[in-house]
Amino acid sequence: MVDMLATIAIIATMAAIAAPQMVDGVDRMRLGMSARDVERELQFARLKSVSTNRPMRLRFNCPVAGQFRVVELIGTTRNPAAADGAANRCDEAIYPYRPTGGDQNRLTRPNNDGVLRRLQPQATFTAFPTLEFWPDGSVHMDIGVGNPWPPLTAAGATITLSRKGKTRSISVNALGKINLQ
User: Which of the 8 DSSP states describes residue 171?
Assistant: First the structure.
């Protein structure tokens, strides 16, 4: 009986020590899943832009915090249409996802919007420049100086995600190379 109680005490002590580290591991795993989801959407935007010969943007916190979506630029890079900046631009009911790419008719654009994605629970964007991928493979960022958006500098851009005090970053350089850190 004493041996059994000692064994139970040791198991309980080990469980009490391991529980916080398991919770921490789950938090890191969910943050990593969110970072990989964003990295995949960046890759999708870049590849979609090149394959369709249309500029694509990745919008963050669209339409609410923790959501993101790849959207086709409506209009041109020099003169985007007013609808491109509308508050409802990420609404899938108004701008639906068409898995086959739509009809490619210039009059019915956008035809290449992606699916509305969500981060894992309690994960947030802490730094998130809206990026625009051009068909030539270059990446541009809105810095508030008008259109077309200037290309990324040599330093590139960083998208940072956080969850419960932990952070992960994704860097994008001017040539479109995406690196999950």
Answer: E
Cα 128 to Cα 148: distance, rounded to the nearest angstrom:
19
Q: Hey, how many other C-beta atoms are within 10 angstroms of the C-beta on 84? A: 16
Global confidence as pTM: 0.85
Does the pLDDT at position 68 exceed 90?
A: yes
Q: Of 44, 46, 59, 111, whose CA–CA distance to 89 is shortest?
A: 59
DSSP 126-180: EE---EEE-TTS-EEE--SS-SSPPBP-TT-EEEEEEETTEEEEEEE-TT--EEE
Return the ∠ at Cα 88 (arms to 134 and 94), rounded to 5°: 90
Closest among 72, 63, 68 to 38, alpha carbons compared: 68
**Domain 33-180 class in CATH:** alpha beta
Task: Copy the structure tokens of residue 160.
Answer: 């940072």
Sketch the domain layout of the chain as residue ranges.
33-180
Residue 153 scores a pLDDT above 60: yes
Give mean pLDDT, residues 94-111: 74
Where helices occur in the chain by DSSP H, the ranges are 2-52
pLDDT digits (tens, 9 = 90+) for 40-55: 999 999 999 999 899 9
Tokens standing for 125?
């964007």
Residue type (1 letter), 151 = P
**Rounded mean pLDDT, 29-49:** 95
Structure tokens at 14: 């080990």
